[in-house]
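Before a colleague's protein record goes any further, I have to sign it off. What it holds is a sequence and that sequence's fold in token form. Would you go through it and say whether the fold makes sense for this chain? The record follows directly below this note.
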Amino acid sequence: MKRLLLLSALLLTAAISYARQPAAADSVAPLRPVTSAYMLEAGSSSVADSYLSPLTYRGWNAAFAYERLQAMKFDPDNWVMQLNARIGLDRGRNQARNAATWRIDANFSWGMLHRWKPLPMLTLAVGGSTGIDAGCIYNPRNSNNPASAKLAWTVNATAYAACNLTIGSLPVTLRYQPTLPLAGIFFSPEYDELYYEIYLGNHDGLVHFAWPGNRFAMTNLLTADLHFGATSLRLGYRGYTFSSKANALVTNIHTHAFVIGLSGEWLSLSRRHSLSRDARIISALY
């Protein structure tokens, strides 16, 4: 009888210990590959800045962009981070074709999005980001004020819809992502104020609260990643619409660009930790 009770106690203890242990797959940290893309853009631009000229200058637009996505460590199934960096260059001419203007612009942003999978092939995500946008518009014909500086820090709303499908035997990931700044601050000089006057100490009215009513900056990105192997070919379109008004100065910028680049997923391996066959792979986009 004592042996039976002892055996029962041992079996009960073993059962409780086994029940408390997590499943093998859950006890192993999931693998979170980084989805990176390097993109070149080329297209058309339209730039009008009343600080420099009342005319609109139309021409070409070119840019280099980098994108990084990765599932977040604290909740990789539901949250993903996104980092974007881009530098662009525009050149346009007036309608008479006797003057030109240049625009250079650089922006950097980081954000997080919450995602859902209503269908196995479809991912929807909504979130926010914060970023810095800095640039300059240069018109050598305007000798008194040849440059118009642009600087802003904003908090943005963003979302994307991604669909994984197969065209013939080729896997393809389609994605559409809009981004719109909702609030922030931006720089604008007074009407007809020289930058030399700012240098001398005239700093009144230079910083303005930004919202879509006085600084509208909408970006639409549409991409198709063609998965030929470990590295994918990215084709797409980027449209940008910008409008700002402060101190009676108005700026309007429109660009349309074709996107081509390389994308893929990469895993960072550590020599101290080996990969487990039980680990799940949680992709940020694919």
